[in-house]
Amino acid sequence: MEKLHKRNLIIVWCSVVALSLVSLMGYGFTVLAIRGIAILVVAGIISTIGCYLSIDDAKKVLILVFPPAIGTLLYSWVYGGNSIPYLANFVLLAMTTSYFMESVIIYFAVPFTVISVVFMIFSPETIAGSEYSMAGVVTRVFLFIVTAILLYFATKRGAGVVKKTEETLSIVQNNAKVANTISTNLNTTIHKSMSSVHALADGSSSVKSAASQMGQVVEDTANATVSVMDKINAATTEINRNHELAVSLDQGFQKVQSAVEKGNGGYSLTAENEEIVAIQQVDDTRFNLIGKKAGITTVFVRDEAEQELSLTVTVVQADKVANLGSGNYFKVPFEYNGTADESLKNLSTLTFEARFNIESLNGNDNGNARINTVMGIEKKFLLRVDVHKGGSNDEERFLQLAADDKGSIRYEGSTKIETNKWYDVAVVLDNSKSGSERIALYVNGVRETLQLSNGTPDDLKEINLTSDFYIGQSDGKRRLNGAISYARIWTKALSDQQISEQSGKLLSEDKDGMVANWLFNNGNGNTKTFVSLAGKSFEAEAANIVSSWKTDPILETSAPTE
């Protein structure tokens, strides 16, 4: 038990260090950053003291997990709201289940639920971040309650299995004593002992199965867990998320969890038929599976000890794309292995491409300023749809590039953007050119006649993609209010010919200069994260789970291009 306490304490301190580094990178050596770090360190110290106190295990567990739980809430509150710290409490809840003590789960979950409800009423941003919605806050608290209930019953069942296993172990030990004292019955005794060993193995397997079931519940709700098992699960779910050819696993993810529980590291994935599924290894524990054509094949998961799991993978054609409506959008941090990509912080040559369908034009209510956002960074480099500057007809909207909030750099296209029509748009920033020639807008592969240009386009440089990049929203509102099929980013200036040739086409292969290529289709049904097929597999995470889908003719008429 002490070994388990110390392991969980290490997890607590790793979390403290990780959140502290995030604070320093985000706020520098400021009073605010130091205040947040201090809260985390104090919580870690209290947990450490509790770990080494001479008290019963149940009390020790509570002292180990409760201070960090309170610390995450205070940490988020200090920064004015952060959506990530609250998710760490799902990890703490999972830690309580590792002890197979039902009482511990109750003593932790019930008080924390009460505290969460108090914050939900008086400070909801502490739970779901500064851009919270009340529905999102309630959902997080509700999921915590449901997860606690499920883990309680799973733990209760697992404790029964453990008890049975201990009884079996006792039988093995007794048989061993008999073998040492009764030499005349040596063979019989050995046989009985081996039978008991088999029974023990069966019991241990049942314990593994129970732990795997609890792990499934936690993985579905606690995205902050950073164990190897979670990483493998994330890798397998990425099969289905965002390709024009959607991959589904016939045997589900339970077998993957079981394999990782028994694994020894050094994981590898191979496909029996690489013409159906291609495998891209991200790191030691993460893989992307890319559907290439419709069909069925077998994917083999192996570890360094040659343990193997085989999964039947079916590749089918996706038929719909994400419908964000007026309440959903994507945030892209452009992180690789948890760190912002330094190569994307000082750019002066860029190409954005996207395909969208606006269901309703935003009005002037609630500060929307008539803007339907496509993608980019507010006040820096933003592709959007709005009325012409100085225009009064709210029904006439045009593609725009806006570079700051005062319109100092603003370019407007000439093609009227209408509702319930699909458009393939692009913007190019070319550092090799000067003046207005540095900017080009495209609608459906055709270069636009620019209607307005203010300011000095030569000032468009050192664009930092890792800072507040969104798809489908800007300035905390101004949502796309429609559907999106794909979004692509390049660190090079595509030519008129290149834009024309690939406009309205799906790209499935990584290409030179391509930073990201998201295909927002319904291969995995309801999902929240879409993984880029290009570069470093950057993730576009939705504010809410995408559960609404829209038919796009591109999926019926256009095959993926190389």
Polypeptide structure, described:
It is a single chain. This protein is an alpha+beta fold and 562 residues long. It folds into three domains: 220 residues, no CATH class; 89 residues, Immunoglobulin-like, CATH 2.60.40; 237 residues, Sandwich (Jelly Rolls). Strands 7, 11, 16, 17, 18, 20, 21 and 24 form an eight-stranded antiparallel β-sheet that branches. A hairpin with a 7-residue loop joins β14 and β15. α3 packs parallel to α5, α4 runs antiparallel to α8 and α7 runs antiparallel to α8. The longest helix has 48 residues. The chain is globular, with a radius of gyration of 27 Å. It starts with a helix and ends in a 5-residue tail after the last helix. The relative contact order is 0.09.
Contiguous runs where pLDDT drops below 50 for at least 5 residues: 182-261
Can you give the mean pLDDT?
76
CATH topology of the largest domain: Jelly Rolls
What would the principal axes of the Cα set say about the shape? globular
Biggest beta sheet attributes:
8 strands, antiparallel
- The termini sit apart by 55 Å
**What portion of the residues fall into strands of 2 or more residues?**
15-25%
Q: How many distinct helices?
A: 12
What CATH architecture of the largest domain do you see?
A: Sandwich
Work out the helicity level.
25-40%
